[in-house]
Batch of 3 targets.
Target 1
Amino acid sequence: MTEDPHLVRSSVLVAAGTGLSRLTGMLRVIVIAAALGSDLFSDAYNLANTTPNIIYELLIGGVLSATLVPLFVKADRDGDIDGPSAVFSVGMTVTASIAALAVVAAPLIGRVYVNGGQSRGQQKLDLLVPMLHLLLPEILFYGITALTTAALHARRRYLAAAYTPVLNNVIVIAIAGFLILGYHDRQERGGVSAIGGSDNARLVLGIGTTAGIVAMSVPLVWAMRDAGIRLRWNLDWRHPMLGRLVRLSGWTLGYVAANQVALAVVLRLANRPPAGGVTAYQNAFIYFQLPHGLIAVTLMTTFLPELSRAVANDDLVAFWRRFTQALTALLALIVPASIGYVLLGQDLAVVMLRHGDYSTAAAELTGRTLVAFAVGLSGYSVYLLTLRAFYAFADTRTPFFLNLVENGLNVVLALLVAGSGAVGLAGAYSAAYLISAVLALVVLSRVLGPDVGDTLGRLGSQALRIAAASLAMAVAVAGVRAVVPGGAWGRVLLGAPVGFAAYVVAALAARVEGAEQLAARLRHRGGLRSP
């Protein structure tokens, strides 16, 4: 089949936008860490910054994100304007109401995370609640972003949604930079940084962070108008499209709710003394997400249409063959990334975060937390890829129950290791996903039945080859760590390229699928091609 040049070009541009968003997001973490350090206020800011997303996803995000695109596509095909208008009008009304109620309930929300009965807890609560007042209005703009993004995707307009997160990151980076320059005196005030101890600085940070979310949503509204999407106010709560939206989203809403409840529990556990646990956990998680976003999400996007097509053709053999190809490609890239993080994660955190108010001790804690996350990186990506296989069957029920197991494991294990702080909580997260990945693969193989037999041996063989190549990489990186001078900088700058080169050579020798294409494209400075 001949590739559509316009589609290929759009895919490249979207991938570039996603990469730029991830990179600016990493820079945002670095600058915020330098500005706030790792103390009571940085924990309070990170909790407040996460809460609008938790509330939005818990109450409405799962409904809006799950089934909007196919409903909008059908409405476009049918020439229906009233349905999308009703969804927009009701969606905006609901998210605005939730945002307003959340702002009013900020003191109660703060107590979900913090025990105010203790003096240090009350101090953190006094920092958290005003920040919640400033950040909770973001809920409305998360709703706008979800609605407009779905409408644009239904019209095959992808670029605006891929690039607007960059605006958010740039604004927050600028705000943090301004605060660093304006509050260069880093005298501690009872464990709170100069920025955390200033009402004006907290106000600038809170308004600036919310402005970043606003900036992310506004261009999407313009892009929607440019795409010819014209809507009118139609607050019709009984419109059939709203009913279909709620019915189709039931299992997915439960899936999202389980994730957000588990996250809230873990953040509560991370928010114990000493200060800095929430900050370390959140910063390490952002670094942990980077290879998954660049590798796994790209593969999921590439292979999901192929899996769906095989299901539509009732060809389970082709389905399993394509899935194992995706799984092999994923493991070939994610396993070495996981090992690289395990060996170099602590040094990387020191190199990236040890600036400004972020102390060496805080950076090392973040690094140890990243290493604990990295142990489960392969399980995390394999689990989410396997769930996409169920979605190809239009099955949202099985992922819901698998997700209940994963989140239940995460919470139980987190409670067991809560005393070890952010590192233990990250380890619990990794263990939960490793176990759940195996479970998800077992369930999928049983759904497919005997059709999986012919490819299991090949998959196992490739997994062993990838493991052997990864072991060679680990030996090379460990050797660099043992002899290289220059501390963390030297170990990262030399260890990363040596490890990558060792893996490519070992993968070629072990005949890992795709290694030859990877080496050829590296020689020609090309990009990776989907299998």
Note: Residues 40-78 form the longest helix (39 residues).
Target 2
Amino acid sequence: MLFSKSKLLIPLMGGLVLCSSSVSALACTSIYVGSDLTADGSTIFARSEDISNSYNKLFYVSPAGTHTAGETYEGCYGFTYEFTHDSYSYTAFSDDNGDGADGVCPDCGSAHAHTPYQAGGTNEMGVTVSATETIGSSDAVYEVDPYEDLGIEEAEIVTVLLSEAGSAREAVDLLLNIYDTVGCCGGSGLFIADNNETWYIENTTGHQYIALKLSDSMVFTQPNMSVIGLIDLDDTENVIASENLIAVAQEAGTYVGDAQENTIDYVASYNGDQTANGRMIDALKYFNADEASEEPAASDYTISNVDAEGNIVPMYTNITLDHDYSIEDVVEFYHISSIGYTRNLETHIFQISEEDSITDTVEWVAMDDASYSVFIPYYPMLTTNTYDGYQVSTAASVFTEEEPTDADLYYPTTTTVRDGDERVTVEGFCALPENWADSFYWTFDALSNLVEFGSLSEEQIDNINTTLNDLQTQCYDVYTKLQDAVASAETAEAAAETVTEISADAAADVHAAVVELVNGVK
């Protein structure tokens, strides 16, 4: 029977293999909804971070001064950065290279001190960054402007920008300066925001990029695809592009646009062979099923600032919504089966209002499979610490070719291993760490894999869904409780103490309820 007690120390081709070893990182999905299209007038953007099933993720507050002025930060892959001042405090996710993992980073395999794959967060100045949405380019433009081995990798973007930047525009300028100078070692799409503006940036080659200040009247999704279409680069208030953006595409023979008019169709020029993936199709159906196509053209989902007559207009897409969106709608977006699934590590939703205050940003946090998780609200500029269960460092999950005999929880899966010059798919089992129940991430990982791979009855799954829905409803009420607590607090310090406790208590209650669910059906 699945998830029975069992033994996990079984050799596979000479050694143990982490359950995550066979999975690509190309499965993250972002969404943006401008304030004119939301029920409460806030700007909402979100992203699921997908790397692997059963791959621990931590959520915490990086205290002010974690990095000091003059310190050189060494990232996973060769990028270094010297901090110009002591770092701001900020909320963050990262992969687990703590004591439970013997200090070893699961990404680069190194034990040097760094914070691997900080994926998103908000700093004390109200700057929010959501990064690590991996994208690539066509071979032709890549050959003209290849990635830089020592350039910034998406894993380091959040760490550097939230440590350093006091505004969204300062963060944009810092990142683009890094692209201009040392370059990048991988392509990505990312959000940078504060209460004044939200920017979306794509880079798909070593030094070329395009940054767009988003309008309040647009919606889009980005499922590991370039989504920037025809852009007039003369719109300098809302567009920042690398100096050679057009020239590189021209040299590659892929340029689409009008050089005299200073326009470029970015998708066509840098990813001309791109077609909509299944997640894009499912998202377009979610937004407005009546207008969604099974084979959408790029113009159905890409961002542009050029109208049919060639005039510069506010950023827009041709995506429409069938109603104004709320947090509940974005939570449900991540329940789409192709978007919320077992390889989610975490999903974060940022809800930003125009008011200039320490509560203008709300961060909603879910761990593991968003379809079987609960989003818990935080005021990130006031939160001084997160619930302990988010911060539990553990041993890694372990893949074994034979069924274990003394692991508390495990499930059947496959992994890919190298056999000489070939990669071979091997069937086996993934065993979770023995202290899974101490960890918020591993508890939800256990739950989603029970549902996906276990032998649960329909009645058991219905009970799980009902319980999770009830917990989510309680967390919407927690947001109201946070608002009331801030309104009644006499000082910012008192507000910080109270909201930190409220969010932590909510997370503890959710964690305990889901541990009970898992233990009831394993």
Note: The first helix runs from residue 139 to 144.
Target 3
Amino acid sequence: MAEVKSDIEIARAATKKPIQEVGARLGIPSEHLLPYGHDKAKLSADYIRSVQDRADGKLILVTAINPTPAGEGKTTTTVGLGDGLNRIGKKAMVCLREPSLGPCFGVKGGAAGGGYAQIVPMEDINLHFTGDFHAITSAHNLLSAMIDNHIYWGNALEIDTRRVAWRRVMDMNDRALRQIVCSLGGVTNGFPREAGFDITVASEVMAILCLASDLKDLERRLGDIIIGYRRDKSAVYARDIKADGAMAVLLKEAMSPNLVQTLENNPAFVHGGPFANIAHGCNSVVATTTALKLADYVVTEAGFGADLGAEKFFDIKCRKAGLKPAAAVIVATIRALKMNGGVKKEDLGAENVEAVTKGCANLGRHIENVKQFGVPAIVAINHFISDTDAEIEAVKAYVEQTGAEAVVCMHWAKGSEGTIELAQKVVELVESDVAQFSPLYADEMPLFEKINTVVKRIYRGSEAIADKAVRDQLHQWEQAGYGNLPVCMAKTQYSFSTDPNLRGAPTDHVVPVREVRLSAGAGFVVAICGEIMTMPGLPKVPSSERIMLNEAGYIEGLF
């Protein structure tokens, strides 16, 4: 049996084209590409403005069932479908999020696709890339520093130090920094107060960058950030301490989408990266809307399962950017369906049609949910060598009963050759023009009712519950003019419930809303449900233990 190459070995052996050639396929003149080496570049704001009068292509969302340790392969399928569409003669490109260093060195080890369906340069994308995340971290922490500096020099805005809402961030998993006390050490270091860190991908600055339409909109949104409150509970904004201009300067280059390529030299934008369980989980609006002007088909993904990623893509990103998705692809693996059906990870290699059928309840729920938004769905079975014909047929039969279709995809092993059928079926679905997209709830619905709507219609819970303090806070924001904002649910990705161990398709569970945060600049209200953490910790054996430089100086361990 031939040796199976690792993702990084496959990526390193790739024949990459100069990024100017990749851009030329989209009609982008080389002078509008700001190169970062030979194989990645940023697209100029001038060029983005110049294509705004063009008609939009068709937008396809790739989402998935709830993630399990068995793996689903959403990014891999996104890349594979993009390559497949190009293979059958369509002008297509993919839009992905940038990976966070936290998960790369924590659990994932990388997030640039896999096998023969990857984006390259894989090492750069997974590590520092073009510096966007560092710029976001710097802009966020500049605001943090300016808040404490303002308080130190007399606190003219009368910020209540007990009510500073702006935390600090870093792009790494570090549980020790979740809650800290800062400004210790005497008078010269300021006034001691409780504070804490979130991971960069949970920063409101990340969400703002991903939802802003241009630099002017970016600066306006940065100014709208609520940094804290006075003793009378009136809000203090980032513009009040004159931080918005300097933050926008730090983010000037980061606002431009990053152009890279797939292993098959097809164009891809990789830009922005909010988490989907604690933020809104979609790549930037600028990248997606620009791609729609440059290609006939744009394939994008939303993080984790459709209960989080797709819901936020539809209810936040599409609502705010005026996007109208034409179709959705729901990714599932036989292995993950078995786990949803109760099989332990060590037993996934054995055929178990009964467990697959039982686990399909999770898939069926996601199909129903996507259809609630008026978007037609197709299921991509991301193929593993251990899958049996009987198991695959069980999934196809189940999906057919829902009125959708399931297609086996072998992009991991075969690249675009393995997604020809999926690409053809997606084109049929898109061109049938049956999509009638609309968000789940209206803008004018009260905030807690919006939360309850997501809980009941997407999670199939009985209700959302919250302390009086949480409900009062939502009412206060409504009175202040924020009642028309969408809600961003911060919840475990592993279950429809807030219990990560409750797999399958649970119903009638209660969803506790522990805390709410107003992201006035991003334009949504975050509802933190259950035990979700906005600063993750590292696992017992982090991926970082396996990531190193080999004797030849090459990176090993990213996958």
Note: The chain has three domains: 7-130+254-431, 132-250, 447-529.
